[in-house]
Specification:
Strand content: 5-15%
Number of helices: 11
Number of domains: 2
Shape: globular
Strand order of the largest sheet: 3-5-4
Radius of gyration: 20 Å
CATH superfamily of the largest domain: GntR ligand-binding domain-like
CATH class of the largest domain: Mainly Alpha
CATH architecture of the largest domain: Up-down Bundle
CATH topology of the largest domain: Four Helix Bundle (Hemerythrin (Met), subunit A)
Number of strands: 5
Order of helices and strands: EEHEHHEEHHHHHHHH
Helix content: 55-70%
Distance between the termini: 38 Å
């Protein structure tokens, strides 16, 4: 059992929390991953080994090991003679992460439709209702946690453990902070994200994998259009790499079709 601190890097009276992990490296990696994902350590933050060693009450060796893992996740940049810093967000990286996620998930939808049981549908419906409550309460952390559970259980139905592992590594690590910065600060993008999740579930429940995939594709287009328009927004710009010259962003206008899911999360077969 390992004790690590959970307050900011320069606390006057740091608290400690017990983590059920086996190594200091794992404890430090998991804690820093969470802090970066929650934007408690925003992009550009310097991660000084000596400060981290004091914070986690350990030597520098597990700190370096954890930073190497974070670098492999794309969350930290290590530079000779400059140390480590949290990487900046970029629209290009976010689009790449979404592209990879969809490339893995979309082909699995027909298999999920074929294999899913009424009990599994009831379980997913309960999670969707929790997501709706989190959205109504503007509870980003709860939304992200239950969203990860929904992905794991829905795509676990496909019966491909490696698929679930790769998808979850995207959702739990690099993608989370983008959702915080790009989507959950604004009602419209958060609503689109929830609409994608609900629509995909409802079409899966209706046995229509093609429409489930279409719902995701069209929702992504609308969401990314809104994000492109806001790269200079004061709520978003601080998370992006500073630039010396103004950049004009070309915005492609799209309109989402009037596609309506066949049922709501509170009704239809399979709901608890």
């Amino acid at each position: 059992m390992i004790l690590v601190t959970t307050t900011p890097l320069a606390p006057s009276t740091p608290e400690t929390v017990s983590l059920g992990v086996r190594t200091y490296k794992a404890a430090i990696y998991e804690t820093l991953t969470r802090m970066i994902g929650e934007l408690e350590l925003p992009p550009g933050s310097r991660l000084v080994e000596a400060d981290l060693a004091a914070r986690f009450q350990t030597s520098k060796t597990p700190i370096r090991e954890a930073l190497l893992l974070l670098e492999s996740d794309g969350l930290v940049k290590l530079e000779p003679y400059q140390g480590a810093s949290v990487t900046w967000l970029s629209l290009e990286e976010f689009e790449e992460l979404i592209y990879i996620q969809d490339a893995l998930e979309q082909p699995a939808l027909p298999r999920i439709v074929e294999r899913i049981t009424s009990r599994q549908l009831s379980d997913l419906a309960r999670i969707v209702r929790r997501l709706e409550r989190h959205r109504a309460e503007h509870n980003s952390r709860g939304y992200l946690e239950d969203g990860a559970v929904l992905h794991e259980r829905m795509f676990g139905v496909a019966g491909f453990p490696r698929l679930v592992h790769v998808v979850m590594s995207l959702i739990l690590h690099p993608t989370r902070r983008y959702e915080r910065a790009f989507m959950h600060q604004f009602d419209d993008t958060w609503d689109i994200e929830l609409g994608i999740t609900k629509g995909r579930f409802e079409f899966v429940r209706a046995g229509d994998a093609e429409m489930a995939a279409r719902c995701v594709r069209e929702g992504r287009v609308a969401m990314l259009d809104l994000i492109r328009e806001r790269l200079d927004d004061p709520a978003v710009a601080p998370f992006l790499a500073p630039r010396t010259e103004p950049v004009t962003h070309r915005v492609a206008r799209h309109r989402v079709g009037s596609m309506v899911a066949p049922a709501t999360a509170n009704g239809g077969n399979g709901a608890a």
